[in-house]
Amino acid sequence: MAEAKYFLIKGVLEEYSLLNAYDLDSFHFLIRSGIAQVEDVIQGVDLVSNAALLPTNILIPVACASYACNIPGVISSCVAIGIPQDSNVSGIMMEYSARKELEVVESEAKRMVEDVMKLNNILIKEIKCVSSTFTVEKFGVTFAAVLLYNTNWS
Fold it and tell me: Domain total for the chain?
């Protein structure tokens, strides 16, 4: 049986223009937001952080939350992961971003996970989250993501 893994990633960025701030799909932004410094979080196994664990030349699904803004103030993004007690049941991921403080955004994302798991009668083992926050002066972006990976894909 293949081992399923997920990698939590976050980053913030101050850009020179709102157009650049909205360009979240570029490889350059992903590198600057920390994708090259992946934190490995593997259920039941502790590994040293190492982006080389991911194979090259394959598509890897990503669930992400981002917020780009040119209004001065705080922006935050969060992805929360609900891990079920039963390892044969799929978990839940929810994303949330807003012009709000980090604690508010994290709380909302976790609440959304709890609501969906309760609605689906899934018992929660734990909820993990990855989040970022930034105080915008001119143009800013927050970014949080979960990369999904299955060892059968390599």
Answer: 1
Can you give the residue range of the structural domain that contains 120? 4-51+59-153
Each of the 154 residues of the chain gets a pLDDT tens digit; together they read 445 677 777 777 776 666 655 554 444 555 554 554 443 333 322 223 333 455 555 556 677 888 888 899 999 999 999 999 998 888 889 999 999 999 999 999 999 999 999 999 999 999 999 999 999 988 888 888 887 776 665 5
Q: Which two tokens stand for residue 18?
A: 């709102």
| CA dihedral over 49, 38, 123, 108, signed as positive or negative | positive
CATH number of the domain encompassing residue 38? 3.50.20.10
Instruction: Transcribe 10-56 into DSSP letters.
Output: EEEEE-SSHHHHH-TTSHHHHHHTTTTS-EEEBTTB-----GGGSPS
